[in-house]
Amino acid sequence: MNASGHTSHITTHVLDTAAGRPAAGIAATLEAHAPDGWRQIGTGTTDDDGRISDLSPPAVEPGTYRITFTTGDYFAAQGSDSFFPEVVIAFRVSDPGSHYHVPLLISPFAYSTYRGS
After folding, report:
1. pTM score, two decimals?
2. Res. 77: pLDDT tops 60
3. 92 in a structural domain
4. Is residue 52 in a domain?
């Protein structure tokens, strides 16, 4: 359970691999794909440990989702140029009973992700 009083179905953690530390202060938006396009279902900002633990509602349906991270703003605040103004990670939720953790590893000119636990 997190500060908002519910267990988030989808969480994230952002690490700045160039600096070797969590990336605090990155805004993120979670969207669900609907027949008429994308629908925002959550927002958050990474904490001092680079985590957003209350990004989503307590439950989500199977389907396609995406998280958009404002990485350009983060690097600008660090006084660094960056190639990617934002990073968008689309993923599929297939088991509504599972927790989905979507980590992001960033540097000014590269990023990677994987399905976390």
Report:
1. 0.92
2. yes
3. yes
4. yes
